[in-house]
């Protein structure tokens, strides 16, 4: 079976070659389009990333294709109706970074709780002194997790390892899960009132837009910290800045910002097209939160670990090999 990979980096090529040594594989660094589809018209399986637009026109130029393996969770770059009409199987990577994002969440929490950023700067500027660097223990503190999906669950497990009290808010409650991990479901209002650390792990949509806003941010326990590794629009930036100024919130760890360019999923950040069309650097330079010593900002990097990126490829390889053996996994169409 002939397989063609598009939007492939050098390290991905090496990994995929080793994993698919029994398959006839072709690699292309560019994205798949109607202009270059003829190059792979003999291929039965096509693997793409987020910038390849698999339109009906592209599909028509691939007469032998039987399966499309996108190396992303989303698949809206693929004309699903055209695939259905041709009986083409489409598979995706449903998940790859739950623990990765959870670990980054705690990296931000620990950076704030132990004043890591200030400590590093102080050593460089003043020498080996601990003046003004008193932190606080996580043990015994209450962490409020907003959104108990896969990432939120990982955060809860890590928090229990620190001997923290865990409360959670989610529109869907899994009482068995709560008992197994050891956390308590509460309302969003109660979570804001009781948590020493609030961390957000939920998708961005109309219902979650400004979930934390001027209308409820004053409910937050005075001196609490807030962490956001999900989507910037979940927090109203103006309300956050005001709450930091008033001391309602003692600090924030943000991997995402409200003004950040529209991102469908984290993998999109790795694409060449995204870096060429979205000037995040300028946006960050103009962002008022950058100048606050009680705020740590990372560049939407929570998902970005070697293992997470390898899991994308690992799942893609599994999708291809399984299909080749007559079994379809992670199928979206």
**Radius of gyration, in angstroms, nearest whole number:** 23 Å
Helix content: 25-40%
In round numbers, the mean pLDDT is: 93
Number of helical segments with 4 or more residues: 12
Strand content: 5-15%
Amino-to-carboxy terminus distance: 20 Å
GO molecular function, one term: D-lactate dehydrogenase (NAD+) activity
Pfam family, one: 2-Hacid_dh_C
Keywords: NAD, Oxidoreductase
Domain D-isomer specific 2-hydroxyacid dehydrogenase catalytic: 4-330
Question: Can you describe this structure?
Answer:
The chain is α/β, with parallel strands linked by helices. It folds into two domains: 2-96 and 307-324, Rossmann fold, CATH 3.40.50; 98-304, 3-Layer(aba) Sandwich (Rossmann fold). It is built from twelve helices and twelve strands. The strands form two sheets. It has a seven-stranded parallel beta sheet, sandwiched between helices. A five-stranded parallel beta sheet has the order 2-1-3-4-5, with helices on both faces. Strand 4, helix 3 (80-86) and strand 5 form a beta-alpha-beta unit. Helix 4 (98-113) crosses helix 6 (150-161). It is elongated and about 65 Å long.
């Amino acid at each position: 079976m002939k397989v063609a990979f598009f939007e492939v980096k050098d390290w991905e090529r090496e990994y995929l070659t080793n994993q698919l040594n029994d398959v006839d594989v072709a690699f292309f660094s560019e994205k798949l389009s109607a202009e270059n589809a003829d190059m792979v018209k003999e291929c039965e399986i096509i693997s793409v990333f987020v910038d390849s637009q698999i339109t009906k026109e592209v599909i028509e130029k691939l007469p032998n294709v039987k399966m499309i393996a996108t190396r992303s969770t989303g698949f809206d770059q693929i004309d699903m109706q055209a695939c259905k009409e041709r009986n083409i199987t489409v598979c995706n990577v449903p998940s790859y970074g739950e623990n990765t994002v959870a670990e980054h969440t705690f990296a931000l929490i620990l950076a704030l709780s132990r004043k890591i950023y200030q400590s590093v700067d102080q050593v460089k500027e003043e020498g080996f002194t601990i003046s003004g660097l008193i932190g606080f223990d996580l043990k015994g503190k209450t962490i409020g997790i907003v959104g108990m999906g896969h990432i939120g669950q990982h955060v809860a497990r890590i928090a229990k390892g620190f001997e923290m009290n865990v409360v959670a808010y989610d529109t869907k409650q899994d009482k068995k899960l709560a008992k197994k991990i050891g956390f308590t479901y509460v309302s969003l209002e109660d979570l804001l009132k009781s948590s020493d650390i609030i961390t957000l792990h939920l998708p961005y949509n109309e219902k979650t837009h400004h979930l934390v806003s001027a209308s409820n941010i004053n409910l937050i326990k005075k001196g609490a910290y807030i962490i956001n590794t999900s989507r910037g629009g979940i927090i109203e930036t103006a309300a956050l800045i005001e709450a930091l100024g008033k001391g309602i919130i003692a600090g924030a760890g943000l991997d995402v910002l409200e003004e950040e360019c529209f991102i469908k999923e984290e993998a999109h950040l790795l694409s060449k097209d995204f870096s060429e069309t979205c000037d995040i650097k300028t946006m960050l330079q103009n962002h008022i939160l950058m100048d606050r010593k009680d705020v740590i900002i990372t560049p939407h990097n929570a998902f970005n670990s070697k293992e997470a990126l390898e899991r994308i490829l690992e799942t893609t390889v599994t999708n291809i090999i399984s299909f080749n053996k007559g079994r379809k996994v992670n199928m979206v169409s």
